[in-house]
Amino acid sequence: MLVFPNAKLNLGLYVTERRPDGFHNLETVFVPLPWTDALELLPAEAGHATSITLTGRPIPGSPATNLCVRAYELLQADFPQLPTVQMYLHKIVPIGAGLGGGSADAAFALKAANDLFGLELTVEMLESYARRLGADCAFFIRNKPVLAVERGDVFEEIELNLLGTGCVVVYPNLHIGTPEAFAGIVPQRPAHHLREAVAQPLETWRATVSNDFEASLAPAHPVLADIKQQLYGAGAAYASLSGSGSALYGLWPAAAAVPALQWPPDYTVWQGVL
Ligand SMILES: C[C@](O)(CO)[C@H](O)COP(=O)(O)OP(=O)(O)OC[C@H]1O[C@@H](n2ccc(N)nc2=O)[C@H](O)[C@@H]1O
Ligand SMILES: Nc1ncnc2c1ncn2[C@@H]1O[C@H](COP(=O)(O)OP(=O)(O)OP(=O)(O)O)[C@@H](O)[C@H]1O
Fold it and tell me: What is the ipTM score, two decimals?
């Protein structure tokens, strides 16, 4: 079975409280971004252990700890009848970018195994497995725009219409680890209600929708503010860091409005329509 795990963007991200479990409570809107990896999952040949073949962008860490393998092993612990599998992951989405690529791979591995082997797990059960693999992993089960609260894994429906919105995502070849990014944050109550702010026209978001990681990462990584400035300079209606960085995105009311942009050759850039 071949699936295409997509990335996500965060529209606004407020870190509101430190939790007793060491995580933080968040308020953020997740939207799917159609920039994808490719993941294939097949029953392994008889006598072969579960394994993964990796191509594309290098992934730090050993293949045995890849989130796709960990996702499959979680299911195997509860469904011992599951066979061993061979996975192929072609990695395209930048890592440590705030785009949730690793979490998407894990969530799509769960969904693919559920479909391939007829486990008949409900969406709620799949979300519960996903939560054990990473805070933003559960979002990719339904993969629909939502307001996420608590650890970023509890969802509320929202009013949001971004159909046809032009989007540019810029990854400045800078890996920012999620724990490192959270370490620099002082939690606080948001100045605006995100649910109400994103229901307003895109042009109003610049004044009302923000990402708390931008201020905390700014001193160590001035390139982030430079890129955001360039996106606004190119006419973006809204620009922001995604998640804990380092990718930034710009949004234009229509794809045709996105101008041709030049970036340094070591950057990775995605351009398309939401
Ligand atoms: C910042 C976001 O990108 C926003 O979308 C995500 O919440 C990050 O989610 P993620 O990469 O799935 O994060 P995890 O792999 O679960 O957690 C990595 C580390 O980030 C910190 N972390 C993560 C999520 C959260 N709500 N509070 C935290 O403090 C913790 O130190 C945790 O050990
Ligand atoms: N399939 C995978 N894709 C990406 N990273 C993976 C994968 N499997 C395991 N990892 C590990 O997870 C780490 C990446 O996590 P990190 O949270 O920084 O990035 P991300 O999942 O790409 O997106 P985000 O920055 O939004 O969380 C890598 O350093 C790698 O060791």
Answer: 0.95
